[in-house]
Amino acid sequence: MLEKLDEIRSNAIDELSNLQSLNELEDWRIRYLGKKSTLTQILRGLAALPLEQRKAVGASANEVKALLEAALGQKRAALKEEELARSIERGRIDVTLPGRPLALGRLHPTTQMVREICDIFISMGFQVIEGPEVEWDYYNFEALNIPPDHPARDMFSTFWIDTESGERPMLLRTHTSPMQIRVMERTRPPVRVVVPGKVYRYEATDATHESMFYQIEGLAVDENITLADLKGTLYEFAKRLFGAERRVRFRCDYFPFVEPGVEMAIDCFVCGGSGCRLCGNTGWIEILGAGMVHPDVLRRVNYDPDVYTGFAFGLGVERIPMLRYGIEDIRLFYSNDLRFLRQF
Ligand code: FA5
């Protein structure tokens, strides 16, 4: 029996030194110290042994048990430590490494421009509002003095929307001017609003024309508003947006919903007015159409033109960053090329 105990001890200690994991250690514990282990059997059978043998075997069995338990404790602590060291190594963070850059989003150049322009008008007392892109023919054309057979419809090639026959014609708005009518229909003067938004034209695209682009409409109606107010407001706007050194020019233009109608141009950024490819050798770049609100338009929204007058303007948004940054093709704005968009 004593030999058996010796054998158990030396086998157990041998095996213990080869164990690599806590799971293996648990198997070892069950094998040598568990309820069904030989050692436990021996200890349980002590009572049945003759007294002489019982003393010697009992002492030796308890000694082996104590030894194995101590070895088990040490091995468990060592394995735990190794495992901890391994997990620290696996999850090690090198705090000296530079951080990974976070991909930051940014605003689209058109959005940035819309906000910059609106901020200028807000500071002059204008309110920003928005309106529908799907519009009735009435607001886009008729209420703006452009009846169905009017030649000015050719200025605005239109995307029409199929409607049931007999229903009012519907379209994608070709400019933001329909919002002049919508605003005046629901408010009384004084009116001072700017309306940014998308507009659509059914035309072949080229370097300066898109079929979807942004406009910002402006409208001011009150008593005693004159063409001088229009010029003063737009001069101030141009000075703030382009700098005091830019020259501004007004010339006659025609839009059925204003009288008189004007276009505003600034002297060319690139050639300073002497003529180049950008300005088509004219020295001037047109940035917006404007004019005094036509009395018929005022009448249509029940404003008395003998009491109230107003001015309106509409500018193409993309043209401005094109001028400012020398962008040669408007189609770059909406072709989702990140190499282009990331520059702004
Ligand atoms: C209008 O759309 C008028 N509603 C402007 C207006 C408002 C006049 C209020 C009077 C009173 P026009 O078609 O010229 O006008 O367009 C205005 C601006 O939009 C142009 O100066 C130009 O900058 C821009 N634009 C016009 N067509 C395109 C296009 N296809 N692509 C990009 N920008 C365009």
Summary, kept brief:
With 344 residues, the protein is an alpha+beta fold. The protein has helices at residues 2-18, 22-33, 38-44, 51-90, 109-123, 137-140, 178-186, 227-242, 295-300, 319-325, 338-341, and strands at residues 127-128, 134-136, 160-161, 170-172, 191-200, 212-223, 248-253, 258-267, 284-293, 308-316. The longest helix is centred in the first third of the chain and has 40 residues, at 51-90.
What does this structure look like?
- This protein has 344 residues and is an alpha+beta fold.
- The protein contains 11 helices and 10 strands.
- The strands form 2 sheets. A 7-stranded mixed sheet has the order 1-5-6-10-9-8-7, with helices on both faces. A 3-stranded antiparallel sheet has the order 2-4-3.
- Strand 7 and strand 8 (258-267) form a beta hairpin.
- The protein starts with a helix and ends with a helix.
- The chain binds adenosine-5'-[phenylalaninyl-phosphate].
- The site of adenosine-5'-[phenylalaninyl-phosphate] has 25 residues, from strand 6, strand 8, strand 9 and strand 10.
- Residues 155, 175, 177, 201, 203, 209-210, 213, 215, 255, 258, 261, 286, 288-291, 312-316, 318-319, 330 line the site of adenosine-5'-[phenylalaninyl-phosphate].
Low-confidence stretches: none
Please give the largest β-sheet: 7 strands, mixed
- Overall number of strands: 10
Biggest sheet, spatial arrangement of strands:
1-5-6-10-9-8-7
Backbone structural class: alpha+beta
